[in-house]
Write a structure and sequence with these properties.
alpha/beta, 15% strand, binds 2-acetamido-2-deoxy-beta-D-glucopyranose
Length: 940
């Protein structure tokens, strides 16, 4: 087959996309479940809304009251009549009020205990003792250019007694100055100063102590019996505006050094008022708040203070007979209203924060899964670069996320949630779109912190639920507290969970208000006035920052450095540098002990490096790997200087006991770990710098199968085949062939998910994957473990065939396999090669003896020993158990015919149960080399 060359970016992207799509198709149900979550939540919200409507919005308490009024024609039937007169006070708010009542205008005055008293500086105020009796006066300050005018004017302000001298009650009351400490309402349909049971005050220039005037107002059902309490009014002149201002300021607890509340009821600046001009400034306190922090309109009370001063001026000009009476305040008529609380809008921010954030753990766990199962790295080893990986993953997760929130929008609107319906869809779409982008970038960034799916998932869910709850109970509280500095709100919004929460909160507020007033919610024109613009900018900026950081960290960590390397103390030596003595000593010993064949290979490598020829696919020059010391153990030398050259077309077998460093070596060559020192050249490319290009011509069969449980064998091969730039019929053919080669073709095995494969089948699939697309270099880490003999034979044929244009490095524990497959073998013990050569050579070199076994009855043992002595004086007994003995006979002094003759002779002398003469096997060589190698290393 022609070499298709390395795959292009789009080919690799396409391969990954197709794999992901197949993967998602398999996970269809979990995807549907994911999409259904918003659906369930919307249904849940609708259910809450229905419950809330029936219990609260439509309850009798939240609509105008009705009663059944008997018919006037006396037929015993009754007519349901609604109106304020049939309502309980709580219902009155909702009634239509075609002709609102008239209420006397009230002046806002401070509570008796907070009225101004004499502090250190202002001597003309009363002594603090009045607070104990509750008889402190209501202070009103005056200033202006003409004190004479001012004092005579304020003499007209208050009456000296309570008089109701009129048939018209309100007109009579208007001669008096009524004051209340109760805060005003937003409307004047019912003044709380009159409707509540807080005392009303009549402010007079003189007061008889404890004078009270009973007083009743309105008609049933709005009849209020009140007692008017006399409050002394105190008018004081101040020379300058600034003095008035200072004194008003002292009303605040923090405004005066004593830390007392010291409130002035009202203040007037008469400016340049004279006989011809009336010009006045009125000070009033607008800080009154209701419990929810809203500011009711205190303006409804300001009118009275304006009237007071105007009336005083008029009397000053015209004499006491002329009056400007302010009889009553009256609201405009109103129609019936209903409570329309949209509960979904109120709890929406919490729920939808959860819904959107829920994608975080989903994406995170799938990214970390690929990392944990090393699928990411194995894809990379087969040529899937970082570029296509991130791009396709990004696009892919973005698609899922968009699908998800669009479903949310559609469900929510379809079910009728005001949260979605009232706000402009384009704003909503943009908001969610930007946020999911930020979220995906964050996942990419965060995924580098985790290596285990479990920890990642737990952490992500804590983030999801924590953000929602903190948003509701902390962040929202702070947003609504108008005294909390906005700058800090901005800082909090930098936390992505809160910026999402804030956005949803704004939507909910607009939807809630819109619903209450029967209008639309947020429109683009409200965009900049609603803190939404701020959120958008935060999200966009964070999105780019997160992307850049994720890219940076990925680049750095894939190049093997610690992502926080710049934070590390540059003076702290790295472990390999810290113990140079050990390393040097180690390599010296190795050189001393090195066998001639190993030295020869080393020289060959040095020669090759000088020639810089590429005839050898793999060249390793003195590769070393030292794992830094951990938990007080000394640093571990996994590979101590390995030199090796493998030409194309050769299969190099690496034998060695467990823990000898074979896998460390393979990991270095496949780019999983960086060599501590030394160099590896694959196809003329350096493994430290050019790994990405090396990958395009490399195949790996790792020791542990790295497969996707839900993808089938065929799909695996198709994916990796595409990565290796196979296309169309070439691809199908290659896949079919390799399936047949590894015996996965028949019986529909190829189309079963790999998760259901037996260990042997997975193994075969891994080998097939490593060989697909004719890579130039293949590493196989124990390819045939766990295979039955028939499959193993099959596999060997496959590998043997593949070997023709490929350099293969293979580790194995099976000597049979090594002998069958490998052109050369190296025995690797404790981090270094003990010998190198083809199997025959090795056997010749290390075997050098026959093994003679004979079983007799135990009394003839001595005879056997004697026999061997005769045949070969230097024979060694290596094994002895009840009549069975094993000897090693040096080849050079033994001739096989002699042995046979001796045995024949012996058979005539005593009974020989069994005997045998064997050439050394590879296994014997292995055991011998391994034993000496280890012994040497133990003592080194
Ligand atoms: C102050 O007002 C009085 C009248 O109340 C007037 O007689 C007097 O001239 C005014 N003084 C000045 C300085 O304008
Ligand atoms: C009540 O008002 C009338 C005129 O409206 C007046 O004649 C009468 O003297 C007033 N009575 C008192 C007690 O002020
Ligand atoms: C206000 O001015 C008058 C005279 O102009 C003066 O006697 C009085 O002390 C001043 N009051 C204050 C508080 O400065
Ligand atoms: C204004 O009213 C508020 C609320 O009653 C009070 O706390 C504050 O001290 C008042 N300010 C002044 C200057 O009187």
């Amino acid at each position: 087959m022609a070499d298709p060359g390395p795959a292009s970016f789009s080919t690799r992207a396409n391969a990954l996309l197709r794999k992901n799509l197949t993967y998602q198709k398999r996970n269809l149900w979990s995807n549907i479940r994911l999409i259904l979550i918003p659906f369930y939540l919307c249904i849940f919200l609708v259910a809450i809304q229905i419950l809330f409507d029936s219990q609260v919005n439509n309850s009798d308490d939240n609509r105008c009251g009705c009663q059944c009024i008997p018919n006037t024609n006396g037929d015993g039937k009754c007519v349901k009549t609604c109106g304020i007169e049939y309502s309980k006070p709580s219902q009155a708010f909702f009634c239509s009020i075609p002709s609102p009542s008239r209420w006397p205008p009230l002046l806002q005055i401070p509570q008796p205990e907070s009225r101004a008293v004499s502090l250190a500086s202002n001597g003309d105020l009363p002594n603090e003792s009045c607070r104990r009796t509750g008889s402190c006066p209501v202070t009103i300050l005056f200033t202006g250019n003409n004190k004479t005018l001012g004092t005579s004017l304020y003499g007209n302000l208050l009456t000296s007694s309570f008089t109701v001298n009129s048939s018209d009650f309100l007109q009579g009351l208007a001669h008096n100055v009524l004051g209340t400490t109760e805060e005003a309402d937003m409307t004047n349909y019912l003044d709380p100063g009159i409707a509540s049971n807080v005392s009303l005050y009549n402010i007079q220039s003189q007061c008889v102590p404890n004078a009270k005037f009973p007083f009743s107002f309105g008609q049933s059902p709005l009849e209020f019996k009140k007692e008017l309490i006399c409050a002394q009014g105190l008018n004081l002149w101040r020379n300058k505006t600034t003095e008035v201002n200072d004194e008003l300021f002292k009303g605040y607890r923090k405004g005066n050094p004593e830390g007392k509340i010291n409130e002035i009821a009202a203040a007037y600046d008469l400016l340049n008022t004279d006989m011809n001009n009336f010009n006045v400034h009125v000070w009033y306190n607008s800080t009154y708040k209701d419990d929810s922090g809203n500011r009711p309109s205190t303006l409804v009370r300001v009118s009275r203070s304006v009237n007071l001063v105007s009336n005083a001026y008029l009397q000053f000009l015209q004499g006491p007979g002329t009056r400007m009476l302010f009889e009553y305040v009256k609201e405009v008529p109103k129609s019936e209203s209903r409570l329309r609380l949209d509960i979904a809008s109120l709890i929406g921010p919490l729920f939808f924060t959860w819904v959107i954030l829920l994608l975080f753990p989903v994406i995170l766990s799938s990214l970390v899964y690929e990392k944990q199962e090393r699928l990411r790295i194995i894809m990379k080893m087969h040529g899937l670069g970082d570029g296509p990986y991130w791009m396709i993953s990004y696009a892919y997760y973005l698609t899922i996320s968009m699908f998800y929130f669009i479903c949310l929008l559609i469900f929510g609107s379809a079910i009728g949630l005001k949260f979605f319906r009232l706000n402009d869809y384009s704003i909503q779409f943009t908001f969610y779109f930007l946020y999911v982008n930020l979220q995906i970038s964050l996942v990419f960034l965060v995924s580098s912190l985790f290596s285990k799916v479990k920890t990642a998932t737990v952490a992500a869910y804590i983030y999801v639920f924590g953000s929602g709850l903190l948003g509701l109970f902390l962040f929202q509280f702070l947003i609504e507290d108008s005294s909390f500095p906005r700058g800090w709100i901005f800082v909090l919004e930098l936390y992505p969970g809160f910026s999402l929460y804030r956005g949803l909160y704004e939507f909910s507020q607009f939807a809630f208000r819109g619903n209450l007033r029967g209008q639309d919610g947020m429109k683009w024109k409200d965009f900049s006035g609603s803190a939404m613009d701020e959120i958008f900018y935060i999200i966009i900026v964070e999105w780019f920052l997160a992307l850049m950081a994720a890219y940076y960290i990925d680049k750095v960590s894939s190049s093997g450095k610690d992502p926080l390397f710049f934070l590390k103390n540059p003076f702290k030596k790295s472990p390999s540098l810290r113990r140079p003595s050990l390393q040097r000593q180690g390599s010296k010993v190795v050189v001393e002990m090195e066998k001639p064949d190993v030295t020869q290979e080393r020289e060959k490598v040095e020669q090759l490096l000088l020639e810089s020829s590429t005839s050898h696919a793999i060249v390793c020059d003195n590769l070393k790997k030292v794992y830094p010391s951990r938990d007080g153990n000394p640093p571990k030398l996994a590979v101590r200087g390995l030199s090796l050259a493998v030409p194309s077309g050769e299969c190099f077998g690496m034998l060695g006991p467990n823990g000898a460093g074979k896998t460390s070596f393979i990991n270095m060559m496949t780019g999983l770990v960086k060599p501590t020192s030394g160099a590896g050249i694959v196809q003329g490319l350096d493994i430290c710098n050019d790994m990405d290009r090396v990958y395009t011509s490399m195949g790996v069969c790792p020791q542990h199968d790295l497969l996707w449980g839900t993808l089938t064998g065929r799909e695996h091969l198709l994916f990796y085949g595409r990565l290796k730039n196979l296309k169309g019929s070439d691809l199908t053919q290659a896949v079919e062939e390799s399936l047949k080669n590894v015996n996965l073709f028949h019986g529909g095995v190829a189309d079963k998910p790999a998760g259901k494969y037996s260990g042997g089948m997975k193994r075969r699939l891994s080998v097939a994957i490593s060989l697909i697309g004719n890579p130039k270099v293949v590493y196989m880490d124990e390819p045939s473990t766990g295979l039955d003999p028939a499959s193993r034979k099959n596999l060997w044929t496959v590998i043997k065939r593949a070997k023709q244009h490929t350099a293969i490095i293979l580790t194995t524990h099976s000597m049979e396999e090594a002998e069958y497959l490998c052109d050369r073998l190296g025995i690797f013990v404790d981090g270094s090669l003990q010998c190198i050569g083809n199997p025959k050579e090795l056997k010749g070199r290390y075997g050098g003896s026959y093994v003679f076994t004979m079983t007799t009855s135990s009394e003839h043992e001595r005879n056997v020993e004697k026999l061997i002595q005769d045949v070969s004086p230097n024979a060694k007994k290596i094994y002895h158990i009840s009549g069975t003995q094993k000897f090693e006979l040096p080849k050079e002094e033994v001739r096989i015919s002699e042995v046979f003759r001796a045995v024949e002779k012996a058979k005539s002398n005593f009974t020989v149960f069994a005997w045998g003469l064997a050439d050394t096997t590879l296994e014997d060589v292995f055991i011998k080399v391994a034993r000496t190698g280890q012994a040497f290393n133990v003592f080194s």
